[in-house]
Amino acid sequence: MPYTGDDWRSPGDFWVKTGSGWQKLDALRANVNRHIKRIAMNKKEKSLQNELNHKSDAFQEALIQPSQSCHQDNSPAFLGGALARYLLLPRGKGVYFTLGEVLLRLDIAGCACDPRRFIYVCRMLELMVCSHFVCFSGTAQKNLLYALEETVDVAIESQKNLRHVRRIIRTAIQELTKQQYTHVGSAATWRARLAMLEDMNNKLNKIEISEPHEDDNTLAMIELPDECIRLIFRRFADHEDIINTGATDKKLYKFSNEPLLWKHFCFFHFTKEQILREIGVGADENAVRWKACYQKLYKRNGRRELYGEMLHICCHCNCLFWKNGGHPCSLETAPEGSKRVYDPDMVIPSIPITPQQFMEMFPTGSTPP
C-alpha cells in the first residue's frame, strides 16, 4: 500500500513499493502512461497501414469497375501507398480531407525535392503558414514542419530560392510567437516547434554562397556578351532578382535599368487593359517610365504566378495529381461487358489548381482562435 513519506527527499509525496524498490506514485503513473501511449501508437501505425492497403485495393477495383467507383460511397481514398502523389477526392458532401492529411498523402515534403515543383510547394507552404499554421492540429503541424525542414534542406543544398524560403521560416516564427497562448498543444510543444523553426532560420543565415574558382575556367556573368546578359535578365520571373543582380556590379546595374527590360516585364505580368489604365490610351510608349509603371502595377494588381509544374484536378474522376506525374483515371479502363473502347490518343481534360485555389479546397480541421 502507498504511504505518505515525510522525509527530506520529497515530503508529502506518495510512495509505492515495487520489485525494484520504492518509487514515487507520480513517477510510476508516468511510466505506465508512457507504456500505454507506446502500445497505442504501435496499434495506430498498424491500423493506418492496413487502412492504406485496403484503400489501395479498393482503388484498383474502381479502375476495373468505374461505374461502381468510390464516388458513390462518398469515401475519400488514398491512392498508391505512402509515396503516391495523386489523391482521389470525394464528390459527396460531408466527407473531406483536411490540409494536414493532404500534406502527408500528397507527399508535399518529397515534392520539394523536384526543381519543377519547388516554387509551387514553397508558395503553398507560405499560404499555410500565414493563414492556418496556428489552427492546425498537432499532427498537421508536425507534417507542415517536416515539409518546411525538407524545403530548407533543398534550398541550402542547391543554394537557390534562399530568400523565398527564409521569408517563409521567418513568417512561421512570427505567427507562432504571436499565438503563444492560443496555440494548439501544450507549452512544451510550442517551445519545441519554435526551437525547430529557429534552428532552420539559423541554418539559412549561416549559409555562404560558393563562388566559382579561377581554376574552373568558367565565365562570370559580366564577361558575357551584352546580348546574352539581356537575355538572362529577360528570363527572370521576379523583379527582386533583377534589382539584386543589378546591385552586384555597375555594368549589370546599367542592364537592370533598361526601359525595354521593364517594358517586357510589364507586358509579361499584366494584361494590356491594366497597362493602358495606368499609362493612358494613346500614350507614347517611348516616353513611358516603364520601371515606375511596373512598380505601380505590381502594387495594384500583384505579380503573375509562374510555376514549372502545378497540381491538376481531373474533370472525369475528380483526382488531384501533378501534371507530369499523371494519374490512373477510371476512363482509361472499360468495365467488364462494356462496349466502350478506350482511345489512347484521347486527352482527358484537367484543370490547373493554383496554390490559393488549393488552400480553398480543403478545410483546416479547426477554426482559428
Report on this model:
The model is unreliable at 1-5, 62-84 and 365-369 (pLDDT under 50). The two termini are 46 Å apart. 50% of the residues lie in helices and 8% in strands. It contains 14 helices and 8 strands. The strands form 2 sheets. The protein has a 5-stranded antiparallel beta sheet. Strands 1-2-3 form a 3-stranded antiparallel beta sheet. By secondary structure, it is an alpha+beta fold.
What would the average pLDDT be, to the nearest integer?
75
First-last Cα distance: 46 Å
Strand runs, count: 8
Write out the strand line-up for the largest beta sheet, numbering strands in chain order.
Answer: 4-5-7-6-8
Describe the sheet with the most strands: 5 strands, antiparallel
Our Rg estimate from Cα atoms comes to: 28 Å
User: Unreliable segments (pLDDT under 50, ≥5 consecutive)?
Assistant: 1-5, 62-84, 365-369
- Helix proportion range: 40-55%
Strand content: 5-15%
Task: Write the H/E string, N to C.
Answer: EEEHEEHHHHHHHHHHHHEEEH
Can you tell me the overall shape? Answer: globular
Structural class: alpha+beta
Count of helical stretches: 14
